[in-house]
Amino acid sequence: MTADAASAPAARPDAPPTAEPSDRGPRTRGGTAYLRYAAGKAGGAVVSLLAVLVTSFFLFRLIPGDPVKFMTGGRPVSAEQLAAYRREFGLDLPLWRQFTDYCGKALTGDLGTSYQFRAPVVDKITDALPNTLLLTGTAFVLYTALGILLGTRSAWRHGRMGDRLNTGLALTLYSVPSFWLGLLLIIVFSVGAGPVPGLFPTGGMESGGEEGLAYVVDVAHHLVLPVITLVAVEYGQTLLVTRSALLDEMGSDYLTTARAKGLRDDLVRRRHAVPNALLPTVTLIFVNLGRTVAGVILVETVFSWPGLGGLFYQALSVPDLPLVQGLFLVFAAAVIVMNTLADLVYPLLDPRVGR
Fold this sequence. Notes:
Blueprint: H1 3-7, H2 24-59, H3 67-71, H4 79-88, H5 95-106, H6 121-156, H7 161-174, H8 178-192, H9 212-249, H10 253-260, H11 265-277, H12 279-294, H13 297-302, H14 308-316, H15 321-349
């Protein structure tokens, strides 16, 4: 027995047990830190949405064209009739008054009335949104899964022939304009080129007159070429980000230790390397989710797909200011919300984030 131990007072039998060190303080501090982090990100998202609200009003008023003349259908009309149209849609008010009316209504969910459709903008967006989610959502699932799978394989076998082929093809397709690739696919697989017959519709979402299972098959038939276009153009970005992040992780000491313990290579990759390398990919996935709501304007226009992208193109050609402003606001809000969600998920995946 040491002198220190001998000099220590003996515990009394009736004394209360010594309290164990508690970690409630650090946990509470950690929870408070996360709440502050989340509140900061949410506040930034609100400020960004307000900035988009202001931008969407002034930006599209720079577009040349008179929506009132479009509403007349090119018919000769009197000055009194033009003035009546302007009064009907509030275009005769001063710009500052139009702006305050727009902001006040937008904050209550009223995005105005479309000039060309004479219907509430919210209704037009609601009608077109499912079509966009069907197209871009299907493509999103496919190109995300394909990009992560091929990016992981390329990184783990970097420098080999398969890695060079995957990376080269991804870079090539990622640099191809989506509308050009869509037109090329229409020429080859819809119209037919040489020995290749026309196998798919040139555009639209359905042929019409189909019901039940036949309708589902018809929509899937129309979906093939636009989905292939989106997957071919978009999967390369996910592949390259995943590959780069995994290559950064492959030299880490913990992977060397895992191999030294005798773990198989595929187990080291799947259980240790990939989860830690997915943080940049998570951000990209959330950003692409936001773009899924926005749709892809050029692809929907090329394939005449009746979604938000095609609706935005129609509105720009007028210009239908309430519809353009409403769609722009929805597109931007989707991206901002998804970016904020990515920021909120990050600390849950890596506790070092947000400290």
